[in-house]
Design goal:
Elements: E1 16-20, H1 56-65, E2 70-74, H2 82-92, E3 95-99, H3 101-106, H4 120-129, E4 131-138, H5 140-145, H6 167-188, E5 195-199, H7 205-211, E6 214-220, H8 225-238, E7 244-248, H9 269-281, E8 286-290, H10 292-295, E9 296-299, E10 302-305, H11 307-322, E11 332-333, E12 336-340, H12 366-374, E13 428-429, E14 431-434, E15 448-452, H13 458-469, E16 473-477, E17 487-491, E18 494-499, H14 505-511, E19 521-525, E20 528-534, E21 542-548
Parallel strand pairs: 1-2, 1-8, 2-3, 3-4, 4-5, 5-6, 6-7, 7-8, 12-14, 12-15, 13-19, 15-16, 16-18
Antiparallel strand pairs: 9-10, 11-19, 17-18, 19-20, 20-21
Helix pairs in contact: 1-2, 2-4, 6-7, 7-8, 9-11
Amino acid sequence: MTPRPTIQPATAHRPQLGLQGPVMAWQDPWAGQSSDAIKRTGTGVLLASQDGRSTAEGFTTALRRFGADFYVHHAFPGDPNDHVLLSDIARAGLGLVLGNEYGNINGPHRPGTNRWDVPASLVAEAAARVDLRGVLYDEPEHLQINADQYRKDGFHPHFGSVDGMPPDAAVETIASRVGAIVGGIREASDASTPVLSEQVFPVLFHTLARGGMSPCPKVMKESFQPLQLGTALGAALQYRRDFWICVDLWGPDIGPWFTRAPGYPGHSPEEYASALRLAYFFGPSHLFTEGIDVLMQLTDSQFRATAFGEVWLEFVSSFVPSHPLPWTFREARPHIAFIHAEDSDYGQSERPFGKRGDRAPERSASVFEVWHLLSHGTIPRHGSCMHIPGYDFPRHRLNPLDRSAYPFPDGAPGVDAPTRTHGLFHPMNSVLVFDETVGGDDLADASLIVVAGTRLPAPTRDLLRVRAAAGATVVLAAWLDPDHPAGVHRVGEGAWAVTEDFLSDEVAEVVAPHLGATDRWTQRFGDHELRITPRDADGVELEFEVVPA
């Protein structure tokens, strides 16, 4: 593993800010009528544009007025107007990210996959004509595991079949195929062009980063935020990748707020305001919102800010300038390092790595038990996001409503009070996640190291013994350490705890000094500690404080 680079403290880091294009509010300014002829969302249905159509100039002017540094554009397969898009984006002085979501949903797909790749010719032209910020792969982990989400003529995982492969082989195969994709994009553009894995599920971050992709976690959505961010950020640090964040307004909740579709938005304006600040404080290189439809309404050829748009405008024009960051994501350090090999299970236990008819090993669930432990019992012990048993999404109540009745300016009929299924807060003490190939440099700052999952190579186990001898407390699953009996053992200046049950009283006693407060989520960045506390009982709104580490 490449040594961790020496970081000079940032004096005023400012993430680049972006907005992703519309999916139902108005027709794409370059694709026009064909916008309504393809599926632009993952809902599986065609959605007519609600607000009419904008000119390209009017749209790019609105992007600039809303403070965007770059625009995320999901390319339309076969669109003959791509060259016009590039000219208009260049003229507006905007950066550009090219994404593949529309092709994933509609095809044409690469043979044997459910994936559409942005053509190399478009990538090359974009790199030559505009400020190409990156190429985005939309929810590739989702489409690798749930391969029939969009393509219904068979089961064709995003990066191809891994049927019959053991976990290590599946990881290496997926990473190798990702490496070929990344290599092709960089050959067409520039060796530094980031290729983004924009993810909703907190699995495969490390596998895709191993192949060359830069993690871009979605926050809000249906995620547990410390788990999602700690996993993605750990992957970026371990594999020396870039780190972006998407603040995604799709979600589970409903309320008396501007509503375009069931779950869009699925978070309140207040939660959105806190999520933007949360994403910003994690110091990504780029931060963007998926949900421009929610931020603006096009009426009489004018883009007008909704309540969500006002939140974005306040964030861009007031909060960001008044809160210069003295760190970047590269300075993140763990108090707690959580190590586990990739099993790709987020709680449904089905189709690991995209293998039809297979199930995740029972011991992969130890990962969920550790998250339950590290979060003071607030994250469920049976999954790592809300797509697991026990969650009922209020947005489903809106499904019977006639689509032609949308949008609703103040919420759907009968929705008088907001639901609060999703919150942003769980207590956590600077947890970063690494896979089983982690090097010692990434663990140097961790006082507690927890190891779960199904696999641990002997060289990594030896490295952990070194860390324990230097003073760290290491807690690991008994099946990952056949050489030592269960129990707590002294190793040099530290401790070595072997357990069959991460939720036992013995483990709770060992880790208690490291878990932090039950009402605080922290993340260390260099010499600073970000402290996050809930402003309300459900953790929908957050308070932030920065103190010396």
